[in-house]
Amino acid sequence: MTTTVDVSGSRLTRLLRSGAGIAVAIAVMNVGTYAFQIVSARVLGPAEYGAVARMMALLMVLSVVQLGLQATTARRISAEPDRVATIEAAVLRTSWRAALVVGALAVAASPLIYQLLRLDGLLPAVLLGLTVVPVTVMGGQAGVLQGERRWLPLSLVYLSVGVPRVALGAVFLSVSATETSAMLSVLVASWAPVLVGSWALRRLPRRERVEPRRRVGGEVLRETVGSSLALLAFVALSNLDVVVAGSVLDEHDAGLYAGGLIVTKAVLFLPQFAVVVLFPSMSTAHESRAAVLRGLAFLSSLGVACVGGTYLLADVALVFIGGQDYAEVRGRLWLFAVLGALLAVLQLLVYAGLARRGAATKYVVALGVLAVVGIGSLADSITSLATTVAIIDAVVLAVLVGLQVVLHRRTPDAPGTPA
User: Fold this and answer.
1) Residues 160, 198: Cα–Cα separation, whole Å
2) Rounded Cα–Cα distance for residues 213 and 128 (Å)
3) Angle between helices 272-282 and 333-355 (to 10 degrees)
4) How far is CA 374 from the centre of its chain?
5) pLDDT at res. 207
6) CA gyration radius, the chain
7) Is the pLDDT of residue 134 over 90?
8) 272: nearest Cα among 12, 9, 15, 19
């Protein structure tokens, strides 16, 4: 009996240490994250859930420093394995400083957020600002683990993102079905991955003499700013349409659009593990081209399958976004799946640009953001807005694919070429 348990535990450990383990962990994280949105949609209803969805979208925008820290750290560790301890020490210190600065700015801007997102009160906006602190710290921790390809502790970090959010969200919303309760649960749950990451990194490796932290920290900060700008453009592209919907549609239709975006986010984040696993390879000169091609093939195939599945199983998808309260958007859920499939491939290409320390990618995506805000503001229905956003995403995707083709033809093995 004891032998059987040990073998099972060994198999579980081996799974979590592998790329497949990251896939499982990120799947659980995304299920938890979007289960929280499903619970919120069911408990709050379209109107109030629309406000929560807008806050979560803005949180994604405010989390770009986290994403930039993670990408910068993972790239530098992959590209400079002889400086791991130095990079780790600098990143962890920089993460806390950046988190406190960005969090303070977000809290200071809470009155503006309250007005912009049409919230019921100021407190949800303040809680949103406070949530930025643990989210940013987690970015640096996850970047260290990703760059070293330490999949087991990184899997545990991802698991601790999704599971506490839905568990605490259900509890908090059962006590008080308000926007404030929803955001308070997100804030509390966001500290769980920080605790796991701190435990995993409690002893830094000492494989080489650590360089002066100030100099290395400056290098990390400069690259993080560039990475954050590129990821800010992508996060804005993938989230601002719900804000546009709140401005151009009435409250009911804006809530329906937010409900449809649950499908978009599910399709976008379902294959997120592929980006996490492939990014260190995309940052290594001799592995970059093959990693990008594998990612494009996988994400394109999965996207087609998700769109087809949503079209054929629209009633099942409707259950997951909140039930009959959202029945008016049922026939258009496949269109929201198209948005998610396009964004999933776009995400891979943005990270491919970061892996090569490119510059042009962020400008292309930023133009897409301007198009979503400008052209999207002319929409007068759920269908027209979703179709407009899909066309813009497709154009941006085509341009980024072209940039990658040019880059790899010009310098097939040399990192650092603008892309």
Assistant:
1) 12
2) 31
3) 20
4) 24
5) 46
6) 21
7) yes
8) 19
Residues recorded for the chain: 419
pLDDT tops 80 at residue 356: no
Which letter does DSSP use for residue 178 in this model?
S
Cα-based angle 128, 246, 135 (whole degrees, multiple of 5): 20
- Residue 387's SS3 state is helix
Give the pair of three-digit tokens for residue 30.
């995304």
pLDDT, greater one: 278 or 46: 278
Tokens 């900060």 identify what position? 221
- Using CA atoms, how far apart are residues 172 and 186, in angstroms rounded to an integer? 10
pLDDT at 16 > cutoff 70: no
Tokens at 45, concatenated: 């209803």
Question: Which residue matches tokens 């897409």?
Answer: 368
- Cα separations (Å) of 330 from 10, 78, 309, 365, 388? 44, 44, 13, 30, 19
Q: What is the pLDDT of residues 208-224, one digit of tens each?
A: 444 555 555 566 777 77
Residue 72 in contact with residue 220, Cβ under 8 Å?
Answer: yes
Q: How far apart are CA 245 and CA 258, in angstroms?
A: 8
* Tokens at 102, concatenated: 């960005």
**Is 6 a residue whose pLDDT tops 50?**
no
Query: Could you tell me the two tokens for 363?
Result: 């400008």
Instruction: Name the token pair of 110.
Output: 């809470």
CA distance 175 to 170: 9
Locate 260 and state its tokens.
């449809």
What pLDDT, on a 0 to 100 scale, did the predictor assign at position 171?
A: 92
Q: Is the pLDDT of residue 297 over 80?
A: yes
pLDDT at 1: 39
What is the average pLDDT score of the chain? 82
Retrieve residue 373's tokens: 């805000």
* Run of H or E residues at 409: helix 382-410
Q: Which residues contact 157 (CB under 8 A, 6 or more apart)?
A: 138, 141, 142, 145, 193, 196, 197, 200
Whole-number pLDDT of residue 249: 85
User: What is the pLDDT at residue 8?
Assistant: 43
Instruction: Report, in this order, helix, strand and coil percent for the chain, each rounded to 5.
Output: 85, 0, 15
CA 211, CA 331: separation in Å to the nearest integer? 58
What tokens were used for 77?
């560790």
